[in-house]
Amino acid sequence: MTVQTGALSIESRNIFTLLKTSLYSEQDIVFRELVSNASDAIAKRAVVDARAPGGRIDVVVDATTRVVTVTDNGVGMTSDEVDRYINQIALSGASEFVRRFHPDASDGGSDLGEEIIGHFGVGFYSAFMLSGTVTLDTLSYEPGSEAVHWECGSDMEYALARGSRTDVGTTVTLRLDPDSPYLENGAAVRTALTHYFAFLGTPLYYRFQSDDEGDDGSPLVNDPSPVLKGPGHEVTDEELCAFYRNHFQEACDPLAWYRVESVDLGLRGMVFVRDTRGGAEAIDGRVEIYSRGVFVDANIPQFVPKFVNLQHAIIECDQLPLVVSRGQVRSGGPDGIAAKVAECLSQELAIALHTMFTQERPRYVELWPELAAFVKYGVLTDRIFASVMTRRVLFASVAGELLTLGEYLEQVAADHPGTVFYTSDPVGQAAYVEAFRASGVPALILDHVIDQPLLQRLEAVTKDVRFVRLDADAARVLALEPDPADADLATRVVARFQRFSADRLPGADSKPVWLRVADLPVVLTSDEGARRMSDLAQMSGLVSGRPADELAVPRTLLVNLRNPTVRRIGDLPEPLAGTAIAQLVDLILLGQDELSPEQLLGFLTRSHNILTGYLATTEE
């Protein structure tokens, strides 16, 4: 074999600068690219060579000689293949490559073909980020092949000659700069390898050696057969929980886990339901995406449905349309792979949760406090998930039950068909909750921030169903027929309430009612539609600079003539009646957190005076 010399087939001499500044941004990428190439070579040999041994990749950092080697026993390359795959960068031609990946290129390179993510391609040239000189020693598996030695400097001048390698496979050698951080200790390279190749199917070994530390024995970096990949019946719950805690750095075991798989997409993985009882619900989960055992990224929007991001997951897909650097995914891809992966995740989770609901209802109910936000968010944001799980959403009732919407509607079908009564604040609206409970009218608790948009969605997709907060329809639900004998008393009492509550409830009307619950003196109702619009304006930040009356919600103060205290107000002297009315109104506003600081101070002072007067009367 004659010695061949020449220059790489590329017009632009700043290609390595382009690699460093545009295609790659972190030096750790070098190890991802070279080990990925090695893994590809091993996979290819397993297909074409019936006598191929078990694959193995070795990464060695010699701090003494400042040399890094990446060695595999993969398919190897012939001299012609080195000339094709290495000397002609990425097969695509220099001008086409620069056009697609240069920052000034018009299309950004988003549709570069997958063919350059093969055994060697542009990724190989990331090696020049760490080394001014890169050498490659390789021997093809093909019978009669000669070993090849290739060497190139950052000036892009290469030499291709016969090599001395005797084993099939490839070794890439880098010579590090004296100030390279990878020469200080072995932790930096190990961290990079663990990050990208935790689940690589090929055993990956790493050795750091120096005069001070010596040889660390080439420990295995990855887990080629993690419990995550094993069939469910071969993995114990204890093993899976231990894996989860270690990998995601969680203190608690997952509450549940669901396998996802699609043979057509080459997709497999697992979604873990996080235990957020320690207050971690405000923190998004981590959905890790892998391609053929190589970590790509986490929480990729176009591949992961929004609601899945609330949990931890590990997803591997062989058909991910990767860009040239392997560190990103193309937004489109062949046949809409992104959309198909997202659909698969939604379908698999919907099926798993539906199965739990129908076959393990007690378990589903037990997990619901942790599943609630996850399932509700999925129903709101994902059409496929919603088509299955909308009817499986559970709601807590004021009676302590967990019901689906359908189950609740069955309970109210006789007296209030199609109406869902709910409280958005069981504490602040405690008086209403107790009144409905005492009257035997079922009501739901919708106190999570996601419940308001969810109820609007349910109203939109469920025929003839409307949600009504307890304080919006109390009169219709709780009222009895008026007592004609109380007509004069009702007139006097309502007139006094209208007069003495005007400053606290501007624009509100006072009306007499006879409620089933005599212990409830007054009820403050508001129009459901207007209140929702006001709440939406508040949440959207649309209230600043707008007149208060424009956002005011029409309210009505219902005065219960069956309450003994209310009945006495009609005959009390006006000053005393005014004090009683102010106290009753402030109590209901306090529950709704609507008292201003001045009004709250007045309420506390008045309460103290009432207590003092009561105690004085008791002592007498």
Notes on the structure:
The protein has 620 residues and is α+β, with helices and mostly antiparallel strands. The chain has four domains: 4-215, Heat Shock Protein 90, CATH 3.30.565.10; 227-345, Ribosomal Protein S5, domain 2, CATH 3.30.230; 393-476, Rossmann fold, CATH 3.40.50.11260; 481-525 and 547-619, Up-down Bundle (Four Helix Bundle (Hemerythrin (Met), subunit A)), CATH 1.20.120.790. The chain is built from 19 helices and 22 strands. Strands 1-6-5-4-7-3-2-8-9 form a nine-stranded mixed beta sheet, with helices on one face. Helix 7 packs antiparallel against helix 8 and helix 7 runs parallel beside helix 9 (383-389). The chain starts with a strand and ends with a helix. Mean pLDDT is 83; it is low at 90-103, 105-120 and 542-551.
CATH class designation of the largest domain: Alpha Beta
Which architecture of the largest domain would the CATH scheme give at its second level?
A: 2-Layer Sandwich
Strand-residue fraction? 15-25%
Global shape: elongated
How is the largest sheet built, in terms of strand order? 1-6-5-4-7-3-2-8-9
The amount of helix comes to 25-40%
Q: How many β strands by DSSP?
A: 22
How far apart the termini lie comes to 121 Å
Q: Mean pLDDT score, rounded? A: 83
CATH topology of the largest domain: Heat Shock Protein 90
Number of helices: 19
- When the domains are counted, the total is 4
Q: Could you say which structural class the secondary elements and strand pairing correspond to?
A: alpha+beta
Question: What radius of gyration results from the CA coordinates?
Answer: 36 Å
